[in-house]
């Protein structure tokens, strides 16, 4: 079973958390740093709730991503990350707007609670799977799924899927302590380019997850291609991590019914084309 | 509302008809001529019913399409269409296998009956649309939808969407008689490269359809791009005809709730990449 969050509002699971955060804090202004799906999701959630939203994005962000935040009514603050980190810019904004809530894309109990709705939905499937596989970046999705399954008293194993290039979560699980990547991982799965798990997420993951499968960049690309050609599903590279995990470690899944969480579908057309054709576009094309 | 047949068995609406035909004829061997979705769908339907299936395809067919028929257990008969037409080859096979049923991809009451299930499903939507837009090639899909909606006593208008390059159905409707294209239309919507409507379909369409919107090749491409970028839906060009119709004739749809039938999702990665990036790949890349 593919649990496709590609058709969620704003095209990824991030809307679950963004909506929950925006609806449950009393603040009328929310600020976040996100170049990706959380920024879009928060902007849209705030527009539905008639709240305001500032999204800090690097000046190098893809035009379509900046436009998407603006279309949902979000204010985009561009930051030159060569000169100032996104965290610094968020801090400055928090001083200028002391009434604002600083929303973390993944390290907040409200994020886990928001994402838990996906776990509850999976537990209600007519054919309940034996195991759920979910991408791991900051860990908010998998922690939410674990909580949702627990809320539903569904005894379903949860397995993580993480890029080998940014395997802080798998290493943390082996070491039994929260470890970090030293630099932002250069994985094609941009939703998993996080330095470490959120603390709240780690406390859930360390108790409930036995296995985080580390997948190669090529297996991520191959999974995007498979979902394109065999499933007619358009996924972003991060969304293909779960299928990549199944292909990488068939021994973990053999003979079991598996639900792969496809976390999102937002991907630049040029990158997607390069992946599905298996060829790089020449420079400047 | 998008009615997505991209997730139907074998990736297009054709399975509805193929399954119905294969299940309702007493023959154990079925023969069809199809380089596209119907061949795959019939092969799969026959495999489920433990029947045999021969699919006549041009030698120039894409490798992936030939492989897809074979993977479903179909026997592929390649024909060099420079030397012999597909119809001739089918006729030869019908003489060699007199016990076989020759299955038309679109001109057969069983095809209409099979496709009518989609009309019944649309009539059961919680928010019933005012109008359904469906691609028109041989006309089996739109005729089936009309029949299904009539079966359900749902008063929903049905509008057709056809490539301007192969506008035999629109011209037929204006002339009130069944007209043909003189040559196979060179539209990118390969599911609509038919010479004319099936006779059974025409008798339904002429009574029930007031409007067939003719769409340009560029609007088909633009619709594939829109569905990719705004909907995360992977569609084949033929599947985007209905959205192209809405964009081409907003006056027909303004103020009404519209259900666009996305008829299928099977498209070659190279062609899809060319469409979504808006650029042709250089020769040989």
Describe the structure.
The structure is a homodimer of 285-residue chains. The first copy, chain A, is α/β, with parallel strands linked by helices and 285 residues long. The first copy, chain A, has 12 helices and 9 strands. In chain A, strands 1-9-6-7-8 form a 5-stranded parallel sheet, with helices on both faces. In chain A, strands 4-3-2-5 form a 4-stranded parallel sheet, sandwiched between helices. In chain A, helix 2 (37-48) links the parallel strand 2 (29-33) and strand 3. The longest helix of chain A is centred in the middle third of the chain and has 15 residues, at 109-123. In chain A, 53% of the residues are buried. The mean pLDDT of chain A is 95. At the A-B interface, helix 9 and helix 12 of A face helix 9 and helix 12 of B.
The H/E string of chain A reads: EHEHEHEHEHEHEHHEHHHEH
Number of helices of chain A: 12
Strand adjacency order, main sheet of chain A:
1-9-6-7-8
Q: Report strand % of chain A.
A: 15-25%
Question: pLDDT below 50 for ≥5 consecutive residues: which ranges of chain A?
Answer: none
Structural class of chain A: alpha/beta
Shape of chain A: globular
Largest sheet geometry of chain A: 5 strands, parallel
What's the number of extended β-strand segments of chain A? Answer: 9
* Rg of chain A, Cα atoms, Å: 18 Å
Distance between the termini of chain A: 37 Å
Largest interface: A-B, 24 and 24 residues
Mean pLDDT of chain A: 95
Oligomer: homodimer
Helix fraction of chain A by DSSP (H/I, runs of at least 4) = 40-55%
